[in-house]
Design a protein that fits this description.
It is built from three helices and seven strands. It has 139 residues and is α+β, with helices and mostly antiparallel strands.
Length: 139
């Protein structure tokens, strides 16, 4: 069952730009949480990260993750979409260059490095709060 149109609109308005969210993975029996830059589109948060990072090592072991940001919390399945610079990612990479224009080429991240990857967090469920309304979401 897809979330209602109002909830989807709120998610798009709130996170359809460079947004900071918390991403929780598991490191053995313990959760690991970090803040990541993300962009929301069509039921997914999209991030740019390094393939050799701890988060990707943890995701390789367990793709079920938690996400949280501005009055939203949920669960997602994490997917490594491959190198940012891969031809099959060109359209998505172009959109990410726009969304992350303030920092993507600042020296911290090298989009040409094959270890710079696109991480998709495909939402499974969530809870969204907005102006007194509560939306329980299933994707």
């Amino acid at each position: 069952m897809r979330p209602n149109a109002t909830a989807l609109q709120i998610l798009s308005e709130r996170f359809g730009k460079d947004s900071l969210i918390a991403l929780a993975t598991f490191d053995g029996a313990f959760p690991s949480v970090r803040t990541v830059d993300a962009w929301y589109e069509d039921g997914c948060f999209i991030c740019v990260t390094n393939a050799r990072s701890n988060k990707m090592r943890q995701i390789a072991a367990n793709a079920h993750v938690g996400v949280a940001g501005e009055w939203f919390t949920g669960h997602a399945l994490a997917e490594n979409l491959g190198p940012f610079s891969a031809p099959e990612n060109a359209r998505l990479a172009a959109r990410l260059r726009e969304a992350f224009a303030l920092w993507l080429d600042n020296g911290h991240t090298d989009p040409a490095d094959p270890d710079t990857i696109i991480l998709r967090l495909r939402l499974v469920d969530g809870l969204l709060l907005s102006h007194g309304a509560r939306y329980e979401l299933e994707f």
